[in-house]
Write a structure and sequence with these properties.
Two copies of one chain form a homodimer.
Chain A: H1 2-20, H2 25-30, H3 34-42, E1 50-51, H4 54-64, H5 73-95, H6 107-130, H7 139-148, H8 155-173, H9 175-181, H10 186-211, H11 213-216, H12 239-270, H13 277-293, E2 300-301, H14 303-311, H15 318-333, H16 343-357, H17 360-369, H18 371-387, H19 389-409, E3 412-419, E4 425-427, E5 433-434, E6 439-445, H20 453-466, E7 472-476, H21 485-500, E8 504-508, H22 512-518, H23 522-525, E9 531-532, H24 535-550
Parallel strand pairs in A: 6-7, 7-8, 8-9
Antiparallel strand pairs in A: 1-2, 3-4, 3-5, 3-6
């Protein structure tokens, strides 16, 4: 039952995303049949649904529209090539258990990418909502063209989208809450809300047919949708197009992987299941390979599809199979039903879906939690909009790597003291602590490597200059997880330099793995001070020495 | 006095490096006059010496020989452009206090670069040592050409280099020790050893003159060295060559910066001085800018020049001025003395200098201390030899960044317990410790960021599966210096996931800066366990709870 409901509900989506991808509408229907079967067979999630999704569709359009005319046989062949490449890559990720590679993308970068893509999608649909022609090779040109041609909007088309937009927005954002308040069970309400786009589309289609709006008022409609299955697609990409498709296919595979794993894990957690991410990837990859041979439209794990699945009551992979079978029947018999569906309403439903993809919450959260992550998010989104999808994601990766390096290069270093009456040591600036005159305890909160030695040295010099009495410097290594060759040499030089100035260098709380490496180095062997197991032992020992030396001990 | 000695000693070097750079011999002499004055005026090191050095010379040759015929006016103009660019860049680094940028290069990468360049230098000199012609656009072709033409070697030339090589090697590596053993003071011995190349070259030149070897036996000699100062060089580079020169100039400036700062700091430490690295860079940059206008040969801070300076007794910048003045006199009056110096012996002296640049000690040290650094060193050297100087250094930087990322992505995670009778917590695998049944203490030795969350989660899952009784998980954050947005979200998900499975998540020893950020996040606000100031408090509290729960407490 859930399977049949899902089929009916996803038809408008499938048609819309095919058009978004620049492919003939039936491609979206085909992509909801065989790839679903492949995924049910090989994937591990029991309720995740694959099919045409917004993000792969806009990527397909963005990548291929500069290479061929959308809808042309060459374009369709390239789309199939893209699905094949990204499918094979995803399969390889899954089989060789390389799912962890998707870690290269941080969540803010992925979120920025999706939000940026959503804006691209919205801009691409404006011409259908207004019923105008636009020109433009990039986002700004398209947007400008929309604005300058706004006056030529088709009034009936504008009326359709003007009515559909608030209605669809309301059904997505307010209706469930309203229904629940009116006493309808939440799951039931969710199904009805999902049906709303279908009702809107159906009503609009009936209006078009009844009033002959497409012929009388030039309202653009879907047009003839090929009935039956056609032939298996055997346009395989040649070497030249393979080179052009490889990078976008890789990005598609990566983004697909991240989305699939993130969403799959969240779903699995809700249902107390454990997800095998790599098996998921095998399923998703196989689905795309199959998609390449039938219709040629790249597919993904769809958030809204899965939500529909869950809301409709799907509890096992069987629902997926039933849904594929129902879609097959529709393709074989009923595609003429969709021919006079108005594009304006379809485009409006895509826009509403795209609006929900813009993740302002993630931006707000990153902004308040970690400004650098927020910049990476914004940078990725801006990159997607201004430079294209590939450069956008490259911008994001670059920003996150630069953040990592800049942070590792500017370590937090704290002068610490002992909280009176305890064995705890804390930052002297944050806590009231006791210190030993002439002894400096410095905690370095970062692994030492070639990139941050200057910063560490500068701080050391500054601290030593503040207090000329210092005769013992204790470096607390509890947060130093590694010391590379350059750092070891610089510390070794520092040890000699300090010794020449009459200052002893001590180390405390050196981690096991770090100590193992340092044992045979000049630093360890000629250290002017001692290596202390704990800061407290260093404190006790140095305090006792000072008392012995001077006969006094000032807290 | 030291100044005059230095001048005489560096003459062969200056001529040899000019030839190595593909410039006329007098360029090396000019480069030892005005740049030295500029450096004495603006630099901060009292005894460091600038002038033509091996590394800038081979870089000049490597960069410019594909662009113009060595020795041609165009080549000389390009060399001047290179000196100017690298000088201006170095000046900018110094003035804007950007010396820290040289941190991008780790010591192993710099060492690999210098060792690789040294091998390049040796290969480039073989043709002079053998008296043959070679062809070849890259290292391997040149080497093959040398091997296949070995039979055509000029016998007298071969004799010269065959005798000079062991003699110069001995004087560099064994003579000081022998002299000291024979009772000669070390500093005196060092001066005499430095004089040895001059004696060898002088003897060889006298042999050439006396036996007329250059004319009778085709022994290649330096040839006419222009006397007098010539004109100020005003061939400034045009925009096209500027673009070609910018990257190599940047590398030259970087390598120069690193060498200068490293060497300068070592010298300053020996002499109980403090070095201002940025002022050093101003001096070095100014020296190169001046060099560009007179003779056009890029200069550097020379290790062997400085060593000669020190050995000859230079104690103040005055020595540099005297040396420049003496060189000026020689250029004005005596360059004809060098015309019949045999190239074979000059080349041999370069080879001996280059051999001393191959830093096997650094490789051995890196190999035993940190294998990844050793690979970066070898990769850089191999890159320099196989792909050229620019790609070599790029390889090195890439390898060191990849190492950083790979390490940060594979964090060390330890299950820890308390050392009995103390408040110290250590790895259960390394120390005999007490633990609490049902409580898992995990210490994560790395900042948490998007790239290592998978590894952390995998380890967590594995540890939880080992022991189904675990009801409390304590993450010890003493070595976690940052938690990025992705990590915060994943931890938050983990907290919920564990709570659903009846496991509480605790945090202990969260650092101040990390805690500040986490305070307003869902993780902190809905943490199923507690936040503990110290591991010991967590241990005590959880142990007490277990006792209360079960009436027993097993150590």
């Amino acid at each position: 039952m859930a399977g049949v409901i899902v089929t009916i509900l996803v038809i408008p989506q499938s048609l819309a995303y095919a058009l978004l991808a620049g492919l003939p509408p039936q491609a979206g229907l085909y992509a909801s049949i065989f790839p679903v079967v492949a995924y049910v067979w090989l994937g591990s999630s029991s309720i995740q649904a694959v099919g045409p999704v917004a993000i792969t569709s806009i990527m397909t359009f963005a990548v291929l529209s500069p290479l061929a005319t959308p809808g042309s046989p060459q374009y369709i062949a390239l789309a199939a090539g893209l699905a094949l490449c990204s499918g094979v890559l995803t399969l390889v990720f899954g089989i060789f258990r390389l799912g962890f590679l998707s870690q290269l993308l941080s969540r803010p970068v992925v979120s920025g990418f999706i939000s940026g893509s959503a804006v691209l999608i919205i801009i691409s649909q404006l011409k259908f909502m207004l019923g105008i022609q636009v020109k433009g090779d990039n986002t700004w040109q398209t947007l400008l063209s929309v604005l300058s041609n706004f006056g030529q909007s088709n009034p009936v088309t504008l009326l359709f989208s003007g009515i559909a937009l608030p209605w669809l927005l309301l059904s997505r954002y307010g209706l469930v809450r309203m229904a629940v308040r009116m006493g309808i069970a939440k799951t039931k309400a969710e199904v009805w809300v999902r049906v709303m786009p279908l009702i809107v589309l159906g009503t609009a289609s009936l209006l078009v047919v009844g009033l002959n709006l497409d012929n009388a008022h030039h309202v653009a409609v879907v047009g003839a949708v090929q009935e039956g299955l056609g032939n298996i697609n055997l346009f395989l990409p040649d070497v030249g197009s393979l080179q052009q498709l490889l990078t976008p296919a890789l990005i598609m595979a990566f983004i697909g992987t991240v989305q699939n794993i993130t969403m799959g894990q969240a779903l699995a957690a809700k249902r107390r299941e454990r997800l095998d991410p790599n098996r998921e990837l095998v399923g998703l990859g196989a689905a795309n390979v199959v998609a390449a041979f039938y219709g040629g439209m790249p597919v993904g794990g769809g958030l809204s599809r899965t939500a529909i699945n869950l809301a409709a009551g799907a509890r096992s992979p069987l629902a997926g199979l039933v849904s594929a079978l129902s879609m097959l029947l529709i393709v074989l018999a009923g595609t003429h039903w969709f021919a006079r569906m108005p594009l304006a309403v379809l485009a409006t439903s895509i826009v509403v879906a795209a609006i929900s993809m813009i993740d302002l919450k993630a931006l707000r959260q990153a902004w308040s939690y970690d400004r650098a992550d927020a910049y990476a998010l914004l940078g990725t989104a801006a990159g997607v909009l201004l430079l294209g999808l590939e450069m956008g994601i490259a911008t994001g990766i670059l920003l996150s790597l630069i953040t990592l390096l800049v942070r590792a290069s500017t370590p937090h270093i704290a002068v610490i003291g002992r909280i009176v009456g305890t064995e705890h040591f804390r930052n002297v600036e944050r806590h009231g602590v006791e210190t030993i005159p002439g002894v400096l305890f410095l905690r370095i909160d970062e692994s030492l490597f070639f990139g941050n030695l200057n910063a560490v040295e500068d701080r050391l010099v500054a601290e030593l200059q503040k207090d000329a009495r210092i005769k013992d410097l204790v470096l607390i290594m509890s947060a130093v997880n590694r010391v590379d060759t350059t750092a070891m040499e610089v510390l070794s030089d520092l040890n000699q330099d300090l010794a020449a100035r009459g200052i002893r260098l001590h180390l405390a709380e050196v981690k096991g793995p770090v100590q193992d490496r340092l044992l045979n180095t000049p630093l360890w062997q000629s250290l002017s001070g001692r290596v202390h197991l704990s800061v407290n032992r260093a404190f006790e020992m140095l305090a006792a020495e000072k008392i012995a030396d001077a006969g006094l001990y000032v807290i």
